Amino acid sequence: MAGLTLRGIHKAFGDTAVLNDIDLDIADGEFLTLVGPSGCGKSTLLRIIAGLESQDRGSVSIGGTSVDHLRPHERRIAMVFQNYALYPHMSVFDNIALPLTMTRLNLFERLPLMRQLSPRRRRVMDGIAREVRAVAEQLRIESFFHRRPGQLSGGQRQRVALGRAMVRHPQAFLMDEPLSNLDAKLRVHMRGELTELHARLGATMIYVTHDQIEAMTMSDRLAVMDHGNILQLGTPAEVYERPATTAVAQFIGSPA
Ligand code: ADP
Ligand code: MG
């Protein structure tokens, strides 16, 4: 199925190794959370899985098939960033539709002039609009399709970023501290929404957070990282009750 496998992922920037031969097996539909101190390599690992960064050695597979040769949009993996990375000059609709228009319209059809002139473009866009609406309904964001990201609240922007990830129906979602820019109340609310979304979509999730409560309550398993290594991998209860090292205990806040 659509489980994710990392084998010997190694990455250095200059002389500094930031990922040391990471091996990790994530089951189809699993919610795996990466935690660890700032700079330990969490974002770099997500970026490599998404194809936004290339590893020096090692391999990423989905469903047993290597995706190393595939470009980001060719991998059935969607990433949601901490800062949402929405295009400020584009409407909510266009932001969500972008992954589909980029793959289904050719360069020529993407020219504004072609909006009126190309019947094929119109047919493709009708299909895309249906798919965008279906995702937007799930996230309850249809009412501000025509706004720009700058006219939205943090929570609304977060939903648009989720919509842009969902519209591709990816096999895996990668989320890099997706709630860290929200206020405390909204964060609690969105935790519940993400958990529900994960259950509903049944997609594999790799989630990065600094928030202990998110890590302990949302995850099937936790991977605790430090200096480019996975120190411990286990259920939240296992990691909390039986930390493998004092570094894990300190980071997780286990009783001494
Ligand atoms: P985390 O997300 O766990 O905070 P990162 O993966 O962002 O950590 O970074 C891991 C290390 O790699 C850090 O020391 C960071 O400074 C370094 N790093 C990340 N991206 C680059 C880059 N493009 N060029 C050089 N160093 C980088
Ligand atoms: Mg990071």
Automatic annotation (TrEMBL):
Q: How does it sit in the membrane?
A: Peripheral membrane protein
| One GO CC annotation | ATP-binding cassette (ABC) transporter complex, substrate-binding subunit-containing
Q: Give UniProt keywords alphabetically.
A: ATP-binding, Nucleotide-binding, Sugar transport, Transport
Its protein name is: ABC transporter ATP-binding protein
| Full protein segment contained here | 1 to 256 of 388
Gene Ontology BP term (one) = carbohydrate transport
Superkingdom to which the source organism belongs: Bacteria
Q: Which residues form the ABC transporter domain?
A: 4-252
Q: Which family does the record claim for this protein? A: Belongs to the ABC transporter superfamily.
Task: List locations, semicolon-separated.
Answer: Cell inner membrane
Q: List each coiled-coil range.
A: none
Q: Which GO terms describe its molecular function?
A: ABC-type transporter activity; ATP binding; ATP hydrolysis activity
The role this protein plays is: Involved in beta-(1-->2)glucan export. Transmembrane domains (TMD) form a pore in the inner membrane and the ATP-binding domain (NBD) is responsible for energy generation.
Q: Does the keyword Ribonucleoprotein apply?
A: no
- Organism name: Bradyrhizobium ottawaense
